[in-house]
């Protein structure tokens, strides 16, 4: 069947007299939330539309913007959706070139949808459709929830995404770690999602956010060290290389080095060091004097029992230290 030219231009679905249907790709305008969006509408052929009537409507027929020979929404015309109040404008200087495009400022998630530009008084009348996609693609965040010597629990979270997101975990080799989690409705029509995974190997792990509708993907990564597994792995590698003894010695040396570093750190903290020195210096002389005193007392008691004279240990002369009224213990 031959192609037949249609009488109405810029239609996405064009029905002709010979029952031929031509489906045209629907143009898409993609913007991030809060950015401005320009929805194009150009007449074909190019004609001056400064005195024309222009309607912009949503997919369900509600008025977004209206222009009629100099009057327009917000100036003299009313009836547009409150949702777009003060956020939609046309390009006055481009109307003479057949440009009926509009700009929506500070786009919102609820602005998503199909918009139709209608010029009903042109001969022939013209319509043009465009799809506006307002997306929110925040960067996921990774958190280590808990960790032991042989495993770690990782959590990936995204809040305020649109369209509906999916989250998955991958290791450094690209292998996917299956997790359970579904997007949950959040505020403003957006979605929140959280997934967790338990890992048992040292390495990099990626959390991948994908929005299938947009063919959009963003990834963040983190590094996880599993001490026990890493030691086992290194031991196996060393064993395969006949160097297990060197590896074990290296591990022991590493542990000893850490201990030495900690002791040195404490030693060079001056108040702590001097306190230890003072305690030790006071403790040794005091203990020696106590020992000598007890030994002398025992010897005198033995002499007394053997028939000798017994002298009170608290009153004997201590010529050793120059005291005349007994031993003074300090």
Number of strands: 19
- In whole angstroms, the N-to-C terminal distance is 120 Å
CA-based shape: elongated
Radius of gyration: 44 Å
What is the element string, with H for helices and E for strands? Answer: EEEEEEEEEEEEEEEEEEEHHH
The assigned structural class equals alpha+beta
How are the SSEs ordered, and which strands pair?
Layout: E1 13-15, E2 21-23, E3 28-32, E4 37-39, E5 53-58, E6 63-68, E7 71-72, E8 88-90, E9 102-104, E10 113-119, E11 126-135, E12 141-147, E13 152-161, E14 166-171, E15 176-177, E16 184-185, E17 191-199, E18 203-211, E19 216-224, H1 227-240, H2 244-267, H3 270-305
Parallel strand pairs: 3-11
Antiparallel strand pairs: 1-2, 4-9, 5-6, 5-10, 6-7, 8-9, 10-11, 12-13, 13-17, 14-15, 14-18, 16-17, 18-19
Describe what you observe in this structure:
The N and C termini lie far apart (120 Å). Helix 1 (227-240) packs across helix 2 (244-267). This protein has helices at 227-240, 244-267, 270-305; strands spanning 13-15, 21-23, 28-32, 37-39, 53-58, 63-68, 71-72, 88-90, 102-104, 113-119, 126-135, 141-147, 152-161, 166-171, 176-177, 184-185, 191-199, 203-211, 216-224. The chain is elongated and about 140 Å long. The strands form 5 sheets. Strands 3-11-10-5-6-7 form a 6-stranded mixed β-sheet, with no helix packed on it. A 4-stranded antiparallel β-sheet has the order 12-13-17-16, with no helix packed on it. It has a 4-stranded antiparallel β-sheet with strand order 15-14-18-19, with no helix packed on it. It has 330 residues and is an alpha+beta fold.
């Amino acid at each position: 069947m031959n192609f037949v030219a249609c009488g109405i231009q810029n239609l996405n679905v064009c029905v002709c007299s010979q029952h031929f249907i031509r489906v045209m790709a629907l143009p898409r305008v993609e913007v991030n939330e809060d950015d401005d969006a320009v929805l194009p509408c150009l007449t074909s052929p190019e004609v001056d539309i400064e005195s024309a009537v222009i309607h912009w409507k949503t997919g369900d027929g509600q008025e977004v913007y209206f222009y009629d020979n100099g009057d327009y929404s917000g100036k003299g015309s009313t009836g547009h959706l409150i949702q777009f109040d003060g956020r939609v404008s046309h390009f006055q200087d481009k109307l003479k070139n057949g440009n009926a495009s509009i700009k929506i400022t500070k786009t919102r998630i609820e602005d998503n949808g199909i918009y139709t530009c209608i010029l009903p008084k042109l001969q022939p009348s013209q319509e043009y459709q465009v799809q506006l996609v307002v997306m929110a693609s925040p960067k996921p965040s990774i958190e280590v929830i808990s960790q032991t010597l042989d495993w770690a629990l990782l959590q990936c979270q995204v809040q305020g995404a649109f369209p509906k997101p999916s989250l998955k975990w991958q290791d450094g080799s690209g292998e996917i770690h299956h997790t359970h989690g579904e997007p949950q409705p959040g505020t403003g029509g957006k979605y929140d999602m959280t997934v967790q995974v338990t890992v048992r190997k040292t390495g990099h792990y990626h959390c991948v956010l994908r929005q299938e509708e947009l063919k959009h993907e963003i990834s963040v990564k983190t590094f996880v060290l599993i001490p026990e597994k890493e030691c086992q792995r290194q031991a196996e590698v060393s064993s395969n290389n006949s160097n297990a003894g060197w590896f074990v010695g290296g591990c022991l040396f590493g542990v000893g080095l850490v201990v030495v570093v900690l002791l040195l750190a404490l030693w060079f903290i001056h108040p702590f060091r001097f306190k230890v020195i003072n305690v030790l210096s006071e403790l040794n002389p005091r203990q020696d004097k106590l020992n000598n005193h007890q030994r002398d007392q025992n010897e005198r008691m033995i002499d007394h029992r053997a028939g000798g004279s017994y002298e009170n240990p608290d009153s004997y002369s201590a010529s050793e230290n120059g005291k005349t009224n007994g031993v003074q213990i300090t």
